[in-house]
Specification:
By secondary structure, the chain is mostly beta strands. The protein contains two helices and 26 strands. The chain has a domain of 226 residues: TolB, C-terminal domain (Neuraminidase), CATH 2.120.10.30.
Length: 387
């Protein structure tokens, strides 16, 4: 299957380029089933999603139809917040932006996937529930990603936990999921993980250590690793070790994984540590590329575009931002401090808007009535100095 690359257009909203997008249909659930390969040879050239989506309303303005979406800030104020586009979810974690401007958001515990409008004018709607999701030990539905050739195959990828393993699956909306990678160790804790497609079209899968840090160093275990495969889970021939899916090892406490489509940079976040990924790296033995400062602890998901890294933080309840140049991550600045509470996921949409999810109902936060929430920021002022 031949793929072509579309250029991403810069937008002034966040002074960075767009990343992802896709589309979808109706809901269903079902069992895992095999899926044909959509990866094109050894040197994939993915088709990036169409950036041409309608411009949403700016924060504080009324969306089409004349109403402002409801929401409330973490302080408990009753003031309407037009940045809040979905409310009353439970630990929304995975998020991908579709080419029509809507987003798909996955709940960690339930395995439900919601469609969320960018103006928040209608409630979030369940469009699919993934079967067999086990949320024990930090697990559950942990991330979503879009096929680089979504226009051709319509596939959405998910990283999730079952009762016996952690795994990657893919599915078109409305169809049963198909397995991509299985057998990632499952433990009583440490069942974390994230997925992303890199600029070559390879699937990156960052796995948890299943509560056993020794597995992260074990060369034959899939736990505590960054895997690099084709889109059906096969190791790529230019991986560090032929026949192995392992790209990097020694990962303890994976919380974020992101790729800059314009530069090819790959970033892994594990709590307060940040790495620019390199082939065959031992992340346990070497020092991190950067460490979040004491005022910005609790690193979670990340987004990376046009040399700008954003990290959502839970403990410090802020959005951290830093420049990335070559092999260097610069100084982090904070935005949105204590505005929405504990943050979990951050994604940059194809129009440059920043999408975030909260994790105030994870047992460690102080939820307000509307938690958990999905937030969409469309102006530079909304994210303060991190941009």
């Amino acid at each position: 299957m031949v793929r072509s690359r579309l250029s991403l257009r810069p937008l002034v909203v966040v002074a960075c380029l767009a990343l992802a997008g896709c589309g979808g249909a109706a809901a269903s659930s079902g069992q895992f089933s095999p899926q044909p390969n959509f990866f094109n040879g050894n040197n994939p050239n993915p088709q990036l999603p169409n950036p041409g989506i309608p411009q949403p309303s700016l924060p504080g303005s009324a969306p089409p139809g004349g109403t402002v979406p409801s929401g409330s800030p973490s302080s408990g104020s009753k003031q309407v917040d037009a940045n809040v586009v979905a409310t009353k979810l439970v630990e929304p974690t995975g998020l991908v932006v579709l080419p029509d401007g809507t987003a798909l958001v996955g709940e960690r515990r339930s395995g439900k996937v919601y469609r969320v409008r960018p103006d928040g004018s209608t409630p979030a709607t369940v469009v699919q529930t993934l079967p067999g999701v086990d949320a024990s030990g930090d697990g559950g539905l942990l991330d979503l990603a879009l096929s680089p050739s979504y226009a051709e195959d319509g596939l959405i990828y998910a990283y999730l936990s079952t009762a016996t393993d952690n795994r990657v699956v893919h599915f078109p909306l409305g169809s049963a999921p198909s397995t991509v990678i299985t057998g990632i160790p499952h433990g009583s804790g440490g069942n974390t993980g994230r997925i992303a497609f890199d600029a070559t079209g390879a699937l990156l899968t960052a796995t948890g250590d299943a509560g056993n840090p020794a597995l992260a160093a074990a060369p034959t275990s899939l736990a505590g690793k960054v895997l690099r495969t084709d889109d059906i889970g096969r190791p790529l021939p230019d991986n560090p070790k032929p026949g192995s899916r392992v790209y990097a090892r020694g990962v303890v406490g994976t919380t974020g994984l992101c790729v800059d489509a314009s530069t090819g940079s790959r970033v892994l976040v594990a709590g307060d540590r940040v790495w620019l990924l390199r082939p065959d790296a031992d992340l346990a033995a070497g020092s991190a590329t950067a460490t979040l400062p004491a005022a910005l602890v609790g690193g979670q998901g990340c987004a990376l575009a046009a040399g700008r890294l954003l990290v959502a933080t839970s403990t410090s309840q802020s959005l951290a931002g830093a420049p990335v140049r070559g092999s260097t991550v610069g100084t982090f600045a904070a935005g949105l401090s204590k505005t929405y509470g504990r943050l979990r996921t951050v994604v940059i949409g194809s129009d440059g808007a920043i999408w975030l999810t909260t994790r105030n109902r994870d047992g460690h936060g102080h939820p307000v009535a509307d938690d958990d929430r999905v937030i969409r920021l469309t102006s530079m002022d909304s994210a303060s100095s991190v941009l």
